[in-house]
Amino acid sequence: MLKTVVASLSLSAALCTQAMCAQTPVADVYVQTSKGVTLYNAASNGRLTLVAGSPFPITGQMIGVSGNHFVSLGEDNVHVYALASNGAIGGQVAQISTQDYNGKQCGTAQFGVLDRTGQDLYVDVSGTENQNQAILCVAFQSFKIASSGVISYLASIIPYNDPSGTMNVYYYPPVLSGSNTYAYGTVAGLSGTCDEPEIVSYQRESSGALELAGTQSVTLPQPEPGGWKYFPYYISADSSNHLAIAVQPELNSPCGTRGSLQLASFTINNNGGIVSTNTYENITTAVPSSGAGTDLGPISPSGTVLPVGLGNDLQLFHFNGGSPITSTTGQIPVKGLMTTLKWDSSGHLYGLDSYTGMLRVYTVGSNGMTEDPGSPVPISGASGLFVVSK
């Protein structure tokens, strides 16, 4: 069992100049702010060094890094920028409009997801409503980002199209499997006013384009007898063929009585179907039934630790592949709402509280979880977090 050590250091130790902290960084830490993207280099002990030139101006919201380029998404356009060797964001090298391709009729760009190689980008285009204020359609456009930074269109899919309907649907960002072959997300709103979510399965074509996976089977955990049923919410993937999904039991659905969110493990089979052998008797309860402030973080690069933000607390769980998830720590007060959680490959866990603008860094290892030197770091107007391991 991990023990928790939370170190409180003065803000004067939080940041240092690059000359003072002349170490080979283990990660580049990008934070979206109201003034651009602020970049820190993270040392092996988790200490953050502000990179000269921050905040770097970009258009729209950052998506992530593709090779030697930085990618952001505006209302209509995808933007690609050059990156320096220290991670600094340079000038724009390419852009492409989502409004030039099939799916533009569904609205504007809402979010973008890079595949595990960073070469393929999937953009959700939606938001246009009919006279009943229901979503007309939802499209996913696929783009290829070349090593030069040039971006090209691949294909579009429209998983939801009902201009005469009354549904207000929302597709959550898909999560790529460890093999980079399949992707999984949830969609809310298809069942009506009670918004019981469903899992949507995708697969990547040889070109990199995202397609609907058709009728891939989904086997949810065995629910408690007497009218209970599980509904899926948040999804994380390990680097092999497993998923962690936060599921919620509901009695007498639809629009029934909901229980506490629980953590279930799934195995991805050879054709992309997902199966959970968990049952109501061995599944792990994570958070209160409201789910307020919950963030199911990414599974660690080692494939063994699943962090969960629980309001102003953080809790670590041991991920056991397809076997039931087990509790590792109790709820750890972190004095903030962990709205985004990210890992680097050196065992550091980064948590951003976008409400207070605090970025916290922890080292997670076999001897415990320790808040790193200088953490937390205040960042005015912080709203997003992305980490690139060196």
Key features of this structure:
390 residues; globular; seven-stranded mixed sheet; 36 strands; mainly beta; 49% strand; six-stranded mixed sheet
Structural classification: mainly beta
| pLDDT averaged over residues | 88
| Discrete helix count | 0
Number of strands: 36
Content of β-strand: over 45%
How is the main sheet built? 7 strands, mixed
Integer-rounded radius of gyration: 21 Å
| Overall geometry | globular
Helical fraction? under 10%
Uncertain segments are: 1-14, 16-22, 288-293
Distance between the termini: 29 Å
What does this protein structure show overall?
- The protein is mostly beta strands and 390 residues long.
- The N terminus is likely disordered.
- The radius of gyration is 21 Å and the shape is globular.
- Strands 19, 20, 21, 22, 23, 24 and 25 form a 7-stranded mixed β-sheet that branches. Strands 1, 31, 32, 33, 34 and 35 form a 6-stranded mixed β-sheet that branches. It has a 5-stranded mixed β-sheet with strand order 2-5-4-3-36, with no helix packed on it.
- Helix content is 0%, strand content 49%.
- The relative contact order is 0.15.
